[in-house]
C-alpha cells in the first residue's frame, strides 16, 4: 500500500469517528492506537491533546499540528413537544446542517439518533418553509424515538449539555474524490499518520527532531495554545486549504497559506514550504484565507516564540459537506516529506 492510500484510509476511518469539540476521546484513542502500533513515543495532555515524538535530531525541533475536533452541536434545551434545541460548536451557518442526520451522546453513555430540521419543514403545511430564517431559534432535532413530550425525552436520559455529532456521509469515488463532513481537519490528521509511517519506514530521513500534536479544541480557538515542547522552534499547522472564487486554491493541490485572519505567516517558513513544493514537483498554491485561524495562530496568541506556517489539501465547501481529491492529499504529503529533508 502506498503512503497516499494509507492517508486516504486513515481519513475515512477518522471521519467516521464522532468527535465534536469537547468530545474527542474516541478519536484521540484511535490515534493512540495508531502511534503505539508505529512504535513512537506519545503523551496525552491534560486537555486531551496527543503529543507524539518521532525522534531524530536533538534541537531546533519542528512540530506539525492537526486537529481531530470537528464542528458539532450541544443540546441547549428540550421542547414541550419532545424535540431538541441545539447550540452550535464551531462556526457554521445553520443552513449547512439542515436535514442532516445526527447522533446525540448522553452523559451516561447512551446514543440516540435524530435529524435536524427547521421548525417549518413541510412545504405542504408552511408557506415560509423555504424562507424561514435558519437560526438557533428555528432549528431543532427530531429524535428517532417515539416521544411526545419533554418528560419522554428526559426519561430517555437526554439532557442539556449532551453532545451532538453530524453524520459524515464519507464517500471515496472511483475518480478519486473524497466527500465527507469533517475533512477539516481529519484529512490532514490522516496525512500526518502517513507521514509518520514514512518516517518509521525510513522512506525519508528528517534533518531535525519531529513532533506531531493532535489537538481537541481548534474549532473553538485554543487547541494549539499549549503543549509545545521547549526545543520546538517551528510549528506548522497542517489544516485544510480553503477554496474560494478569488483564491488560487483547488481540490487537486496543496495550499500554502501566506495570511489569514490572525495575520501573515512567517516569511521564511512560507518560502520554505514553496521551495519544498517545487522540489517535490507537486501542484501547490499560495493563498490568503480571509475568515480563518489555526492551531498555530492559537500558539502565537498564547505567547510561544516560534516560527509558524500553514499548509493543507484544498478543501471545497469548508464547514459544510466538504470535498477534496486524492491528488491534493498526495501533494500535501509529498510536500511535507520533502520539507523535512531540505535545509
UniProtKB/TrEMBL annotation:
Listed cofactors? a divalent metal cation
Cite the Pfam families for this sequence: Peptidase_M42
Check the UniProt entry and state the signal peptide residues, or none. none
Assigned keywords, A-Z: Aminopeptidase, Hydrolase, Metal-binding, Protease
Q: Which residues form the active site?
A: 218
Q: Which GO terms of the molecular function aspect are on file?
A: aminopeptidase activity; metal ion binding
Task: Report the record's Gene Ontology biological process terms.
Answer: proteolysis
From which domain of life does this come?
Bacteria
Q: Where does Zn(2+) 2 bind?
A: 184, 219, 319
Cofactor-binding details, from the entry: Binds 2 divalent metal cations per subunit.
Residues annotated to bind Zn(2+) 1: 67, 184, 239
Family affiliation: Belongs to the peptidase M42 family.
- In Swiss-Prot or TrEMBL terms, this protein is called Endoglucanase, aminopeptidase M42 family
What organism does the UniProt record list as the source? Thermosipho africanus (strain TCF52B)
Amino acid at each position: 500500500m502506498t503512503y497516499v492510500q494509507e492517508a486516504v484510509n486513515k481519513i475515512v476511518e477518522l471521519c467516521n469517528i464522532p468527535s465534536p469539540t469537547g468530545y474527542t476521546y474516541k478519536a484521540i484513542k484511535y490515534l493512540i492506537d495508531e502511534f503505539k502500533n508505529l512504535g513512537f513515543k506519545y503523551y496525552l495532555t491534560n486537555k486531551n491533546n496527543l503529543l507524539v515524538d518521532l525522534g531524530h535530531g536533538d534541537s531546533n525541533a519542528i512540530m506539525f499540528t492537526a486537529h481531530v475536533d470537528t464542528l458539532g452541536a450541544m443540546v441547549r434545551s428540550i421542547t414541550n413537544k419532545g424535540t431538541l434545541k441545539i447550540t452550535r460548536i464551531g462556526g457554521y451557518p445553520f443552513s449547512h446542517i439542515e436535514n442532516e442526520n445526527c447522533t446525540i451522546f448522553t452523559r451516561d453513555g447512551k446514543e440516540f439518533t435524530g435529524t435536524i430540521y427547521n421548525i417549518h419543514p413541510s412545504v405542504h403545511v408552511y408557506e415560509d418553509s423555504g424562507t424561514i430564517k435558519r437560526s438557533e431559534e428555528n432549528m431543532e432535532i427530531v429524535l428517532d424515538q417515539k416521544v411526545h413530550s419533554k418528560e419522554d425525552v428526559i426519561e430517555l436520559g437526554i439532557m442539556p449539555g449532551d453532545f451532538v455529532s453530524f453524520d459524515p456521509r464519507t464517500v471515496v469515488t472511483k475518480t478519486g474524490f473524497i466527500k465527507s463532513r469533517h475533512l477539516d481537519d481529519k484529512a490532514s490528521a490522516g496525512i500526518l499518520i502517513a507521514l509518520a509511517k514514512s518516517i518509521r519506514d525510513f522512506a525519508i530521513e528528517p534533518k531535525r527532531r519531529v513532533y506531531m500534536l493532535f489537538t481537541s479544541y481548534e474549532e473553538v480557538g485554543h487547541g494549539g495554545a499549549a503543549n509545545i515542547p521547549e526545543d520546538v522552534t517551528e510549528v506548522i499547522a497542517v489544516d485544510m486549504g480553503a477554496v474560494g472564487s478569488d483564491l488560487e486554491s483547488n481540490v487537486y493541490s496543496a495550499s500554502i497559506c501566506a495570511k489569514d485572519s490572525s495575520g501573515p505567516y512567517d516569511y521564511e517558513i512560507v518560502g520554505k514550504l514553496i521551495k519544498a513544493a517545487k522540489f517535490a514537483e507537486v501542484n501547490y498554491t499560495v493563498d490568503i484565507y480571509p475568515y480563518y485561524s489555526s492551531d498555530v495562530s492559537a500558539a502565537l496568541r498564547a505567547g510561544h516564540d516560534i516560527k509558524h506556517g500553514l499548509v493543507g489539501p484544498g478543501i471545497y465547501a469548508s464547514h459544510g459537506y466538504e470535498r477534496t481529491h486524492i491528488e491534493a492529499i498526495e501533494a500535501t504529503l509529498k510536500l511535507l516529506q520533502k520539507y523535512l529533508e531540505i535545509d
